[in-house]
Each structure stands twice: as C-alpha cells, then as structure tokens.
Amino acid sequence: MIEPQLVCLNGHAAGALDWRCGQCGAPIEIAHLPPFDAHAIRNGDWSLWRYGAMLPVEPRLTLGEGMTALTPVPMPDGEVYAKLEYLNPTGSYKDRGTVVLINHLIAHKVGEVVEDSSGNAGASLAAYAAAARIHARIFAPALAPAAKKRLIKQFADLVEVDGARSAPTAACHQAAQHTVYASHAWSPFFIAGQMTAAWEVWEQLGRRAPDALVCPVGHGGLFLGFARGFQMLHEAGLIDRLPKLYAVQAAACDPIVRGWESGADTPPVTEENLTLADGIVVNEPVRGVEVLRVIRDSGGMALRVSEDAIREALRTLIGRGLLVEPTSATAAAALHTVREQVGAGALIVMPLTGTGLKTLAS
Ligand SMILES: [Zn+2]
C-alpha cells in the first residue's frame, strides 16, 4: 500500500504522526482516499475489513470490529432501525476508528501513545494498543464513570484529571509534545474507520440509504464518518440522494446546536455542564465547521435534548431490551422531532453508540 498523503485543511503537508498541522494548527486530512467500489467488498469477511480496499491502512491487527447488527425497534413515534454499535469489541463505536488508527501506528512502528477521552475512546485505544504491544497513557476526567476508568486500567495507564472535560485534553496536549498523540478527535484515520458504519447500513438496507440518520454528536467522529461514508456512496453512483443528517446534543453542552441555530459557520465555545450524556461533552469540536456544513447540506438539523428527555429515552430503550449508556439515548430523545420533520413512512437509522454495561457497573 502507498503511504497516504496527509494535508491540513489549509493545504499544508503534514507528517504521518502529526496530530495537527505544524504550521497553522488546523486538522489534518488524508488527501486521496480510494473511491468506494462495490466490487471490492470482500463478501466473505464479516467485519469492517470487508471494506479494506477503501481504507488507508493494511489490516495487521483486528479484534473483529464492525458488521454490527441493524435491527428494527418500535419506538413511541414509529419504528426506527437501530445500528447496534455498542456490540463492538470494547462496547462502543469507537473501535471502528481505533482499529484504523492503530494499524496506521503499527505501520510506523510507534511504541507509545497518549490519548484523552471521557471513557469510551480511551478504553478502545487502550485495548487495541495492548493488543499491538503499544504502551498507552490515557487522560480521563476524574468524574468519568468508574467502570469506564476500570476498563481503561485493564489495558493501559490511566491519568485522572480533575476539572471539566477539557482539562484532560489540555493535560494530554502537554504530554503530546514528547510522544505520539493517538487522538480520536483529531486523527483522519479514526474518521476513515467510522465511514464503514455508513457502508454497512447501506448493505444491510439492501443497498440503499435511509431517509434520515439521527446521531449523538460530541466531536462528531461517528457523525462525520456517516456523512463522508454516504457521500462516497453517492459519488460512486450507488445511492441517488444523501440521508438527512440530524445531530443531537445534550442541552448541557450544545455548541453544534447553537451554531446551527444562529447560522454560524463555526460553532461557539460553550460551557461544559454536567449531563447524563457524559460521552458527548465537547465544547469545542475539532471539526465543528464540517459538522455544521454537512447538517445544512443534507437538509437536516441540530437538536438539543433535556436531561429529562434523555432519562425517558434511556428507559424506553432499556424497555426494548437495548442496554445502552445514557449518551446513546440522546438520539432516541430527539426521534419525536425528527419524525415530525421526515414523516411517518420515512426510514430512520439511529446508531446506539455505547454499551450500558459500563454505566450500569459504575
Ligand atoms: Zn496548516
């Protein structure tokens, strides 16, 4: 495989292990990803590596991530299709992005990394790094759910940081001056892995796109993975239109919703109040400009939900036998509004992002 060319959003060349542009600080992207080719799908492979021809790394390590079930769920405002992302190896969707990022790090013979996370991304990176014999140090909020912290400690060193969600990020940026920063928020390899969720949904629906996608958004890694994945299917002529994209945030931390409501290009930096949805407390999303752009281009919306609505949606999901964490319930809490927008017959897909086992055990 040819080494992928990396450039920042302003066109500066970037090094393979840079986490952001050394010249201007902007996020880095992979300049040329292979186009989506339906003939290149490896039909006998029941993991996300069935799309390996469209990914920017060689699969030297896999824990069997991807190819999660897409299952119909009766919800109060009609049936939706839930993509059971919490069934990935470490219990969240993050494993899709992590496995692509870790294979990039393996190719570059990286021996140690740092990362910051509210829990799921840290646990995911910790597990994959352990399997790759890469030493990982994970910076997490001291207030993160106890089971998420215990899970990280099974595989890696945990550094607990007091203060808001942005405090461990600041501590990690300091550490990243001396080592490799394997950031789920910044790495374009992470987002490349998330695109596979869109391709699976397309195959599981009989090679078509849903009418709408409803997704919790923090940094927007999964959301942008879906958006870019469907965009590639569209460019390949495999779907005739893109789904409407609905980004959902807790009212406690809602920069994307505020940016969307005000018509801004860049989301404002907001407060980080405590919320049940601990997985999406991000007051300054790395690719916030792109998140706002794809919502608008798709004809979708950014929606905020209250703590009461999250609690009620979580009860509904658990009542359907779906043991997810509260962050996952934010999407379900927005379904009433989305259904009003798209109509009774529309096909809605909702990823269920993280397992409830981690919060149940806290
Ligand atoms: Zn730059």
Structure overview:
The protein is built from 12 helices and 12 strands. It is of the alpha/beta class and 362 residues long. It folds into 3 domains: 1-32, no CATH class; 70-92 and 188-360, Rossmann fold (3-Layer(aba) Sandwich), CATH 3.40.50; 94-181, Rossmann fold (3-Layer(aba) Sandwich), CATH 3.40.50.1100. Helix 2 (120-131) links the parallel strand 5 (112-116) and strand 6. It is globular and about 55 Å long. The mean pLDDT is 96. The protein binds zinc ion. Residues 8, 10, 12, 21, 23-24, 26 line the site of zinc ion (ZN).
Search tags:
6-stranded mixed beta sheet, binds zinc ion, 3 domains, alpha/beta, Rossmann fold, 362 residues
Percent of residues in helices comes to 25-40%
Distance between the termini: 43 Å
**Chain oligomer state:** single chain
Strand order of the largest sheet: 3-4-12-9-10-11
Structural class: alpha/beta
CATH class of the largest domain: Alpha Beta
- General shape: globular
Give the name of the CATH architecture of the largest domain. 3-Layer(aba) Sandwich
The major pleated sheet works out as: 6 strands, mixed
Q: How many distinct helices?
A: 12
Look at the structure and give the mean pLDDT.
96
- Strand fraction band? 15-25%
Which compounds are bound in this model? zinc ion
Computed Rg: 19 Å
Write down the domain tally.
3
CATH fold node name of the largest domain: Rossmann fold
Give the topology string: H per helix, E per strand: EEEEHEHEHEHEHEHEHHEHHHEH
